[in-house]
Amino acid sequence: MAGSSIIRSGWWVALAAGALTIVVGAVMIAPLFDRPSSPTRGVEFDLADVVVPRDLIVRAMNRDGVMVLTEPAMMDAAEVDRFNSEERGKMLVPEDRVVGIEIAGDARAYPLRLLRWHEVVNDVVGGEAIAVTYSPLCDSVAVFSRTLDGGEIELGVSGLLYNSNTLLYDRSSGPASADLWIQLTGFSVTATKSGGPSRLKLRPASLTTWAAWRERHPSTSVLAPLPEMKKPYKRDPFNSYFGSDLLKFPVAPLPPPGDLDLKDRVVIATIGGEDAVFALPELAAAAGAQAGTLDVTVEGVRLRIRFDAVLDTADVEPLDQPDRLEAVRWACWFAWFSLEGTIPVIIRDAN
Question: How many CB atoms neighbour CB 286 within 10 A?
Answer without folding.
Answer: 18
